[in-house]
Design brief:
Blueprint lengths: L1 H17 L6 H20 L4 H17 L1 H9 L14 H26 L2
Length: 117
Amino acid sequence: MKYLHLVVALLFALFAYWQLNDADWPLWVAMYGSVALVAAWWSLGRPPRILVLLALGVAVVWMCTLLPDLLTWIGEGMPTIAGQMKAESPHIELTREFFGLFISSATLGGYAYNSRK
């Protein structure tokens, strides 16, 4: 399992790196970096539960702020959000961000679940 946590840490570190060309990169590097930190720490031992819950709380709250944009995207018939990397309309970027936060939340949720005593 140690290696699985290291793979998760590496993936989220790469996610953070790939955000460096985005306008709001500091937010995303912090978000993806926190998941990478939790996963890497988990490979060495359990991180403080408060760290996992704090990162999870931030991810979920941030994701909830993007829920109206996700619903707009669904209402428009779920047009492709993967066709090109440059988002031509706001719903594309915000929907992608929603799913990035969903992946982060799911990962942190798994760590939070496993960190309970």
